[in-house]
Structure prediction request, 63 residues.
Amino acid sequence: MGEWTDKAKGRVKETVGVATGDRELEAEGKKDTAKGQIKEKVEDAKRVIKDALDPDKPRRDEP
Prediction:
C-alpha cells in the first residue's frame, strides 16, 4: 500500500511544482514517485520468490 501513496504523493508534488515553477518541489515529487515504483518492484519480487518457494502450490509443469 505504501507504494501507491508514494506514487500519488509524488505525482501531486511534481504537478504542483511544474504549475508553480518550483523546481525543488517538482524534483521532490519525482523522487517520491520513483520511491513508490521501487517499492512496487520489491514487493513484486518478494511475491515471486514466495510463490516459487511455496511447496504446497502446484507448479505450472505439474498436471
Summary: The radius of gyration is 18 Å. Helices lie at 2-20, 23-53. Residues 14 and 26 are 4 Å apart (CA to CA). The longest helix spans residues 23-53.
